[in-house]
Amino acid sequence: MSKTALITGASSGIGKATAELLAKHGINLILCGRRQERLDALKKQLGAVTKVETLNFDVRDRKGVFDAIASLSGVFESIDILINNAGNAHGLDPINEGNLDDWDAMLDINVKGLLYVSKAILPQMVERKSGHIINIGSTAGKEVYPKGNVYCASKYAVDAINQGMRIDLNEYGIRVGAINPGLVETEFSEVRFKGDSNRAEKVYQGYQPLKPEDIADIIRFVVTRPYHVNIADLVVMSTAQASSTIVKKNL
Ligand code: NDP
Ligand code: 8X3
User: Fold this and answer.
1) Which H/E stretch holds residue 213?
2) pTM for the predicted model, two decimal places
């Protein structure tokens, strides 16, 4: 029987590329995000290949998260794979100049949102004693970089939650692992720099960054391993990148 995966942040970047690839593997998809028109377009595109449902909620909205997940029925009710991907950086400022709304957004979305979605889905996985959770962390959750402060803190939190989930869910046979990408060219920098496209483009100029499809391919690898194999924590960077701050240009 086909598995069902719920992907948060499926309207763009890594989440969208993952949906496109998992569809080719016949995995039923629950695509989540706030931009319904994008989710609808993706559903139309992938609906010919696999079964697709969309859920529109802001991961910050605790009730919205639980109501949306409770509304699922049929093949979408039982979720085998949860991909906690929704998230962004907001701003890039020294901590003394940080914007409080940016800090709230990053902690509420990247940390609390991931927890809300997980809490809404975990009871069914625990009940069935099966499931696979993939948390999208970041190299920013492994190494703090200048002005990264609160975004890095949110991704260090994802690292801790990933470890905590794996420990607490071990007795239920639920697989938990994180994928921690370096620089991936998506809408991430557009969001970080609040629509300043010039500044966003510069982040990915002069070297070959990762593509969202590269991360999707790793997620595909992770979810297609035999049950006894759990990829617990994986860091992946562009060959041009050696650390958060060392990127070889014109490689
Ligand atoms: P994108 O900006 O392309 O995608 C972000 C996704 O998150 C969108 O689908 C967006 O959907 C969703 N999202 C954002 N805020 C919310 C919210 N409040 N509620 C629900 N959904 C939300 O960025 P990426 O694909 O690059 O980012 C995906 C993940 O990868 C993030 O967790 C990011 O931190 C992580 N990452 C990214 C890296 C990069 O260099 N790009 C590197 C390392 C990690 P919508 O706006 O429709 O709600
Ligand atoms: C995204 C990668 O280096 O921009 O998590 O923080 S970075």
Assistant:
1) helix 212-223
2) 0.98
